[in-house]
Request: fold
Amino acid sequence: MLQVKDLNVYYGGIHALKGISFHINAGEIVTLVGSNGAGKSTTLRAISGLIQSRTGSIALEDKEILGMPSEKIVELGISQVPEGRRIFTGLDVEENLLMGAYLRNDKKEIQEDLEYAFKIFPRLKERRKQAGGTLSGGEQQMLAIARALMARPKVLMLDEPSMGLAPIVVEEIFECITELNQKGLTVLLVEQNANIALQVAHTGYVVETGNIAFSGKAPDLLKDDRVRKAYLGED
Amino acid sequence: MFLDQLSNGLALGSIYALTAIGFTMVYGIIRLINFVHGDIYMMGAFFALTALTVLGLPIVVSFIIGMIGSVVVGLMIAKFAYKPVFEAPRINLFLCAIGAAIFLENYAMLVWGPQTQSFPDIIQNQSYNFLGLKFTTLQLIILGTAVVLMVILTYIVKYTKMGRAMRCTSQDVDAAKLMGINTNHVIYFTFAIGSSLGAAAGILVGMYYKAVYPMMGFTSGLKAFVAAVIGGIGSIPGAMIGGIIMGIAETLGAAYISSGYRDAIAFIILIFILLVRPSGILGNSAKEKV
Reply:
């Protein structure tokens, strides 16, 4: 579905990604885990076209998307739920959701998707006309996910969806990610919370200082000593 | 006397408001104090005057030509002077704005000459009583035009897809890009709207004072900028309120204190507002929730 090969990114003089390669099969949840500053968010930003100075190859269904502007990448089917949620605080919940469908013109189906989003996240329906900035952190995360879904993506990328949320809300969000995946959505998940990410994912890649250190099936990684020591806080 | 000055102030204030909106919108989108805006306003006045006197077109057509001409100039400046340094630190953009302003002022002198040109008297001026205030025909035209343009603008920003895209881009460029918004288009659209409103203000001022000259945008540009800051830079309703306050304060100050202080009053208000409410009347001082 999505194939990243030898991706290099430079921030000014800093070599932030040093040739990262990984791939995601259709219908899979793949997670990139790693510590702060390893380059996980940078990878997602590069895939979304928010960073232009990059080399290598990013292919969506065998189509090269590296070098395309961000709006084209959204149109081709990659949506991102950015770190820190980044919802539009001045717009109400419904307007936020409609922004997710910005590139679509099928009014009737957009309306159906809106109702679908409210079905998955009933709490958003209650707050339909409320400004995005007045929502709680968990509700904002739900809104950010629902907003990304409004583009009808083939691949949904989530950047630190657990950040700053209470454990019970994190659980709720991850249940929802699993459910969406079971309905056929391909997911690329970036998390510092390796434990929960590896529990829901099929495949995991461990990112260290701009490189993939190692990878494997998620259940195997959960048992791997290197992962347990470095990311799960066990000795 | 007081009521006469009030209607003068309202007319002048609505012109400041139109100009201030352009400042505030461009600032909202790319965080640039667009110091070329005053000169776009001047170009609009010259375009309309040329259409009116040289080509002999009717005033309404000339007005529209002035607005279109300024949109073209505004877009060219955005494309050739700003686009190459969009990603650079803001100071570079700011310097490009000042350079473009100097260029436009001198270009206007080259084309139309440095002397003041008079705007022909095309409106039969009569007095009307309205809400207890006395207005001339011209003042009513100015107020009416300003109100209509502001209503159209508010509609575009609030209810159209492009308007929503503008609000999103001004809040968070990266998040807007992730929605599939082509933020470059939004930026150009913002420049186009700002320039057209600036041109309308320039033409109205030309009609009001019956004078058009290459440096006319300099002081007005500064005052409109002050109006935008008073209202809260980045806020469109703020720019409208700031403009009206400035216009009324300036005419009342000129009438009751001394007309020599006319231009100083704007800056006195600015200092006062910055001391009392640094983010402006409708400015957003709230910290963003993370």
